[in-house]
Amino acid sequence: MKKILIIVSCSIIIAALVLYFTFTNLSKDSVTKKESASINVEKQEKGQIIEIEEADAKPVAEEFPLEMSEEKIRDAIHGMSHQKVKADKKWGFIPLTSERVNRLIEVVKANQSTYKNSTTYLEILERWAKNDFSQVDKDHNTIWELQNGNVGRATGILSHEEEMEFIQEYYDVEGT
């Protein structure tokens, strides 16, 4: 009986150790593994615009189909704003690119009659399409309020350096 108890105990300990080390390695890889991307920095009258060029990005029409729900539009605008805003908490991130902004404008215009807040979305997106991020913190908070946000209110706009640091949290940026 004592032998069986020792064998069962050792088996449980070994199984627990195998599970622990397997889980630890999987978690570590999923947190530290970043997608590759390159950065395109355009100097504009209003400052520098940072665009992320993802190595494995799917086509924007596939990412944002014309029949997107209004909730998904809000999620996309909110996620893109995180690249540019200061906030205590940020959940989700979608790289803010001119291609995505222009596609979202197209989607909102195609659904203007069904989206309750289409005017708000178009005001934000059309400003961004002109590389005007001077009130991106207010844009973030407008969408955040439509989503009934209670944590993560934007408190300002990131500097160029802070934006680069934020991007590097998510991407293995070539040339940095």
UniProtKB/TrEMBL annotation:
A Pfam family the protein falls into: DUF6241
InterPro entries per UniProt: DUF6241 (IPR046208)
Transmembrane segments: 6-26
Keywords: Membrane, Transmembrane, Transmembrane helix
Organism from which the protein derives: Metabacillus niabensis
Record's protein name: Uncharacterized protein
